[in-house]
């Protein structure tokens, strides 16, 4: 592998990994904020338990998103210095604004939420979480503005061979970003929905398995109690409510991703026609959507790909909203791209050994074709499972079947898979460009950049390989640690996040002391244990 | 001199100052986890002084890097790609350190905690050292060619200045953390921290002074020399205030030191953002490395609103958590209460008191 390939693998691995943590952070943060709001308004103890339990898992995951996010910001400069030089004038701003306007908010107010359970008034404490969650949504917005500019550059002029921002409004309201942001947020909620559903299912199943809950004659569940902290009747309500919230969130978010995804598809047909053609492995112009295509998807000439099952008209519908407009296939696009952007990479030292090579305009179609289908498939599967789960548990009973429980837990992975597949599709589908040309922008100074020119010229393949190995190894180890901790706290149930459930007497003492002001220090109770 | 690039040079210097001031003490507290704390309760006292704020402090680093990318893309690209391996070490250190804060208390085992304590201590050291080295090199020079790329092998960036800057930030972070602990804790930790501070501070600031003076000799101006003198005064003041027991003022005085130090260093380096050790003609400066005035103007407006806001709500955080933490406040480590242990044995049907029987 040469430096470029190593750098691409590194960016891909670190980004997909980072984006396993991020959607769970965004989605679960929102869900926890809603749950805590319900607790604030109703005072029902179940909702406090849910806040603490899901909040604990949220934090275990949040920190991984933070830690891996730093890598993202540094590696543009480290591994992609030519890219950074080329796009800095327009691409740096959203990154800087993300840190200044969003991530500061998120980190600071989350710190207040974690440590402020007793120091802050209940309303202020809840507000801190909402502010942090809104911060994370803004974070997503700024990052997607930056990414969307790579998909669809707008608001710039070329000056001395570099794009210079001339219209910030255009950059920050790029239509590509405006549909990608809700798409991503719904994708994040889908992750949270399946997460709640799977884990709540497991606990409900376990309560029946352990003989705590039984099913009455009328087929309804009769919650029981066990002499274990946190496994009382209220515990049943915690999980059943969580399950239903999770299932509803999963279904809403699938509808949301479908609608926004459709809008994205229509934009993509205009803005990056090659990407959509490659998503379809559509070699020839046509109207049909391929349900299954076989052949050598990796071949560059695309001649031996056969669409085995094709639904006529659907592709046109995805692209244009009707059933008859012909959508251009790879073969006709290839000519257009060659004419517009050249057949060979320029003879410029920036391209290293690749200078003068023929440009491969067709993305790797195995990846785009299957990535596109995995995204939709996993997303749909999760929503269908959620619907099924709601139906099955309509009487408040989770079946005793171990296999169903395992499926519910396994289902947690489906939206993760959909998110990863979607990003891999859209980033791989943009190749060979790192900044895809905007077909609306005319003139010879079209704004685009080949990925081959983006890598750092001064950095050796050895350095890149070192970082690829080091980061991948660290990420692998931390994934094992995170999952182990999550499993431990999930199995531990509510009591693992609320030790006071096991020390009911102590907790009451503490509260008394604080209430009449004779306690030694408000920071001296179990709040610290909640954190460090 | 162009106005907007100059403003953004100052803004980035301010961001780095904020970073060194704030994360300075939490990096130092991290290192002290192994150097200073005697037992687990001490360590939890240390952790809880920085617990609510360290993540917010770290964002100053991200903002400094992001602002450099946006305002001076060529500076960002050259600095980060030239220092590839040291920044990789910083990234690894920051990853482990962040995760360690959160995960350390999640399993009740001595071995588990000890591992994460090492991750915090070593991670804090490496991060402080690497960032100090990077800042020292950007103010003293890197082997850059005409395109701004590093010439030579992966280690060709190395110079004595890197050591000076690295140890400068590490040693500063340590004493800054001691001043912080004296201010934020009570009991044994507070008094020991103050004693350590008084003993160490005269030596701990020496490498930082070395870096400051080196930059002055390379490109100093009268007013930046004056800041060096001010930094000396601030340190003497911090030392004396600590001796008389004014912990808050001693901490502030050391804060004034780091403000003077970064101001003297960045002020002396201005208008060069990275000197090239190959040829001064290849120097990156605020003029040739900056973004367009349009971008800088946009960023200026946002920063003028955003940065004071950040300072306001971060100050509020420190106000909310202003109480001193002491060993007496640290509760017993709660044993983990598993609802579902590996083997929970509950006789079927024994617990529900309802008259119903199993329905399926």
The N- and C-terminal alpha carbons of chain B lie at a distance of 84 Å
Beta-strand residue percentage of chain A? 5-15%
Strand percentage of chain B:
under 5%
Strand segment count of chain B: 2
Q: Are there runs of chain A of 5+ residues with pLDDT below 50, and where? A: 505-530
Greatest interface by residues involved: A-B, 115 and 100 residues
Give the helix level of chain A as a range of percent: 55-70%
Largest sheet of chain B: 2 strands, antiparallel
**Adjacency order of strands in the biggest sheet of chain A:** 1-2
> What's the helix count of chain A?
17
Q: What is the quaternary state of this protein?
A: heterodimer
Element order of chain B: H for helix, E for strand: HHHHHHHHHHHEEH
Q: Alpha-carbon distance between the termini of chain A?
A: 44 Å
As residue ranges, the low-confidence spans of chain B are: 342-360
Q: How would you characterize the largest beta sheet of chain A?
A: 2 strands, antiparallel
**Topology pattern of chain A, helix = H, strand = E:** HHHHEEHHEEHHEEHHHHHEEHHHH
Look at the helices and sheets of chain A and give the structural class.
mainly alpha
Overall pLDDT score of chain B: 90
Concise description?
The complex is a heterodimer of chains A (532) and B (360). With 532 residues, chain A is mostly helical.
How is this structure best described in words?
The complex is a heterodimer of chains A (532) and B (360). Chain A has 532 residues and is mostly helical. Helix content of chain A is 66%, strand content 5%. In chain A, the strands form 4 sheets. In chain A, strands 1-2 form a two-stranded antiparallel ribbon. In chain A, strand 3 and strand 4 form a beta hairpin. In chain A, helix 1 packs parallel to helix 14 and helix 2 packs parallel to helix 7. The C terminus of chain A is likely disordered. With 360 residues, chain B is mostly helical. In chain B, helix 1 runs parallel beside helix 12. The longest helix of chain B has 33 residues. The C terminus of chain B is likely disordered.
């Amino acid at each position: 592998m040469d430096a470029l390939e190593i750098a691409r693998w590194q960016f891909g691995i670190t980004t997909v990994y980072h984006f396993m943590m991020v959607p769970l952070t965004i989605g679960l943060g929102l869900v926890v904020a809603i749950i805590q709001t319900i607790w604030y308004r109703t005072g029902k103890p179940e909702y406090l338990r849910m806040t603490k339990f899901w909040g604990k898992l949220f934090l275990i995951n949040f920190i991984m998103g933070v830690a891996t996010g730093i890598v993202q910001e540094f590696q543009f400069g480290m591994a992609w210095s030519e890219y950074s030089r080329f796009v800095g004038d327009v691409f740096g701003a959203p990154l800087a604004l993300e840190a200044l306007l969003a991530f500061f908010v998120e980190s600071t107010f989350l710190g207040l939420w974690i440590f402020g359970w007793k120091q802050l008034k209940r309303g202020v404490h809840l507000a801190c979480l909402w502010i942090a969650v809104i911060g994370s949504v803004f974070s997503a917005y700024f990052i997607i503005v930056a990414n969307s500019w790579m998909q669809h550059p707008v608001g710039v002029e070329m000056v001395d061979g570099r794009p210079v921002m001339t219209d910030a409004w255009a950059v920050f309201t790029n239509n590509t970003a405006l549909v990608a942001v809700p798409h991503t947020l719904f994708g994040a909620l889908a992750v949270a929905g399946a997460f709640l559903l799977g884990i709540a299912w497991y606990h409900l199943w376990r309560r029946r398995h352990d003989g705590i809950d039984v099913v009455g004659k009328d087929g309804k569940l009769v919650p029981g109690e066990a002499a274990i902290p946190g496994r009382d009747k209220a515990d049943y309500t915690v999980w059943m409510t969580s399950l239903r919230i999770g299932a509803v969130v999963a279904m809403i978010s699938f509808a949301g991703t479908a609608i926004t995804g459709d809008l994205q598809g229509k934009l993509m047909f205009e803005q990056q026609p090659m990407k959509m053609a490659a998503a379809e492995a559509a070699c020839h112009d046509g109207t049909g959507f391929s349900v299954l295509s076989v052949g050598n998807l990796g071949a560059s000439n695309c001649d031996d790909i056969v669409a085995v099952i094709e639904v006529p008209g659907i592709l046109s519908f995805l692209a244009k909203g009707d059933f008859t407009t012909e959508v251009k296939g790879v073969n006709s696009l290839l000519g257009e791209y060659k004419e517009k952007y050249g057949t060979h990479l320029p003879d410029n030292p920036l391209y290293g050994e690749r200078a003068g090579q023929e440009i491969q305009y067709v993305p790797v179609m195995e990846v785009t074709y299957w990535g596109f289908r995995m995204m939709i498939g996993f997303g749909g599967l999760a929503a269908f499972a959620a619907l099924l789960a709601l139906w099955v548990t309509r009487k408040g009973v989770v079946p005793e079947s171990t296999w169903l429980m395992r499926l519910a837990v396994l289902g947690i992975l489906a939206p993760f898979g959909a998110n990863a597949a979607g990003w891999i599709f859209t980033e791989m589908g943009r190749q060979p460009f790192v900044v895809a040309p905007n077909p609306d922008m005319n003139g010879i100074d079209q704004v685009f950049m080949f990925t081959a020119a983006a890598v750092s010229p001064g950095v050796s393949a050895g350095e890149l390989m070192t970082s690829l190995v080091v980061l991948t190894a660290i990420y692998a180890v931390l994934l094992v640690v995170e999952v182990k901790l999550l499993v431990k706290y999930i199995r531990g149930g509510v009591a693992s996040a609320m030790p006071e459930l096991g020390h009911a007497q102590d907790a009451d003492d503490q509260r008394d002391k604080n209430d009449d002001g004779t306690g030694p220090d408000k920071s001296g109770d179990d709040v610290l244990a909640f954190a460090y | 001199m162009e106005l907007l690039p100059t403003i953004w040079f100052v803004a980035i210097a301010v961001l780095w100052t904020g970073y060194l001031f704030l994360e300075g003490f939490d990096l130092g507290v991290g290192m002290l986890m192994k150097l200073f704390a005697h037992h687990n309760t001490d360590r939890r006292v240390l952790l809880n002084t920085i617990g609510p704020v360290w993540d917010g402090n770290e964002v100053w680093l991200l903002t400094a890097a992001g602002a450099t990318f946006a305002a001076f893309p060529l500076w960002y690209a050259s600095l980060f790609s030239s220092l590839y391996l040291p920044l990789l070490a910083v990234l690894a250190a920051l990853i482990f350190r962040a995760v360690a804060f959160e995960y350390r208390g999640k399993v009740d085992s001595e071995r588990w905690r000890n591992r994460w304590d090492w991750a915090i201590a070593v991670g804090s050291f490496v991060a402080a050292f690497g960032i100090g080295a990077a800042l020292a090199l950007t103010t003293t020079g890197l082997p850059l060619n005409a395109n701004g790329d590093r010439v030579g092998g992966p280690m060709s960036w190395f110079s004595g200045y890197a050591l000076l800057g690295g140890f400068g930030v590490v040693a500063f972070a340590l004493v800054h953390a001691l001043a912080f602990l004296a201010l934020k804790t009570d009991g044994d930790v507070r008094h020991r921290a103050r004693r350590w501070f008084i003993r160490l501070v005269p030596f701990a600031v020496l490498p930082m002074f070395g870096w400051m003076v080196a930059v002055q000799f390379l490109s100093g101006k009268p007013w930046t020399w004056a800041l060096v003198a001010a930094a000396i005064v601030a340190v003497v003041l911090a030392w004396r205030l600590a001796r008389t027991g004014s912990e808050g003022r001693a901490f502030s005085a050391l804060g004034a030191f780091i403000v003077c130090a970064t101001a003297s260093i960045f002020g002396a380096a201005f208008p060069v953002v990275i000197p090239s050790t190959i040829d001064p003609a290849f120097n990156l400066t605020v003029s040739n490395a900056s973004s367009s005035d349009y971008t800088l103007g946009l960023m200026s407006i946002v920063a003028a609103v955003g940065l004071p806001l950040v300072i306001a709500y971060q100050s509020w955080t420190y106000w909310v958590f202003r109480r001193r933490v002491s060993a007496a406040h640290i509760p017993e480590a709660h044993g983990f209460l598993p609802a579902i242990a590996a083997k929970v044995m509950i006789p079927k049907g024994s617990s529900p008191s309802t008259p119903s029987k199993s329905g399926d």
